[in-house]
Amino acid sequence: MISEIVFAAGCFWGVEKHFASLNGVIDVKSGYVGGNYPNPTYEKVLKYRNLDKNNPEGIINYTEGVLVKFDTQKLPTKKIIKSFWQIHDPTQKNKQGNDIGNNYRSAIFYTNEKQKQIAYDTKKIYQELLSKNGYGKIVTQIEALKKFYKAEEYHQDYLKKNPFGYCPNHSTGVKFEKVKEEKKITPLKNKEILIIENENFCPYCEKLKKDVSSKYKGTIPLRTVYAKNLKDFDIKSNLKVSPLILFIENGKEVFSHKGYINEKDFYRLLGEFKLGISSESFDVAFNKNTDSRFCKQYDIFKNTPDGVFIDKVSGEVLFDTKDRFDSKSGWLSFYKAVDGSTIEKDDFSYGMHRIEVLAKKSGIHLGHVFDESGHRRFCINATVLEFVPRKDIKDN
After folding, report:
1. How far is CA 217 from CA 231, 244, 358, in A?
2. Residue 360: helix, strand or coil by DSSP?
3. β strands within 198-251, DSSP E
4. Which of 100, 156, 277, 309 could potentially form a cystine with 319 if both were Cys, beta carbons 3.0 to 4.6 Å apart?
């Protein structure tokens, strides 16, 4: 059976995104509901957001609502209404977090008696749960749906069109079902990276996972966790922000990054964390400097056993010892890079025209490539590489 219901739980962008992600939801529309003047627009709703209900004109403003069409066979009415209670704080009047105004008030607008009964029944149960957790009285408006005005087109699927858009987490964290206690995450020795995700749907978290963390192969451990599962960490950053990238050493936060970050910028931060911003290898990788001839790292790497050289930051395989040769230049030399691992760019620095070689994934500077005597010579800085023996290479 196909059914419709309207939920209001703060800014409709995030609410729409949440319900659109549920299995069994057929369609979701953002709009305005619960007011008494004709033809509401976003500008009008914002204009009246601070009006008290006892204003002389008798105006009742609209709240930002989401009309959800769903299949009750796949998504029972009780389950979707429980989901509504859990994605916001229904004890806040005319606000959600820093979003203040009557247009952000919590509300359920039902379309049949079954929805009405479930709304009141679940409200009673959730009130008991909230009270046990120190929250006040639920102020959610529960009424029959009279009229829903679809919002302007740019509000529809807003976070799908604008993945970096505003999507705060206003949930209380109180659940209907008692959640089995999850295993706590304790610090690893030395350095690690933690990505704190939102327990509710967050498009930035999903995008960060897709673009960065799911592809990560670096040697510093990376774990994705919920803030509630952390134990014995010394963290100063606000754990309510998501996604939050924490760079940790021996359980203590060194620094962090709040929100989404693209892959190249992530690896620069990782470079600061792993290499140290004042180190020679960081200077080479991110400031395009050059190793000294016959440097210590060159001496270590020039006669390694069979294996591969990886990007010191991203962990991607860049060069193979099978392609290494001694050019007598004082820098590591290879006939070729691993297919698809590097990119080449014109370099006109120092009044010369050379071809710069960069790691494709992390973007770090590796060196230059030269055409010599019928073959190519990749002249590569040793301080930006790590060596992995062939026997220790893991299949991806």
Report:
1. 25, 19, 17
2. coil
3. 222-226, 244-249
4. 309
Q: Which domain holds residue 311?
A: 296-392
- For residue 236, give both structure tokens: 């100063």
Query: What is d(CA 88, CA 91) in angstroms, rounded to the nearest whole number?
Result: 9
Where residue 341 sits, what CATH number does that domain have?
Answer: 2.170.150.20
| pLDDT tens-digit readout, 12-58 | 888 898 898 899 999 999 999 999 999 999 999 999 999 887 788 88
Instruction: Supply φ then ψ for residue 87, to 5 degrees.
Output: -90, -5
Pairing of β 191-197 and β 222-226: parallel
Indicate yes or no: pTM above 0.85: no
Question: What pLDDT digit, counting tens, does each position of 65-104 carry?
Answer: 999 999 999 999 999 999 999 999 999 999 888 889 999 9
Number of domains in the chain: 3
Contact assessment for residue 358 and residue 367, using Cβ atoms and an 8 Å cutoff: no
Active site residues: 11
Domain boundary among 234, 261, 288: 261
Residue 230 and residue 145 in one domain: no
Query: pLDDT, tens digit, for every residue of 340-382?
Result: 999 999 999 989 999 999 999 999 999 999 998 789 999 999 9
Q: Give the pLDDT score at 365.
A: 97
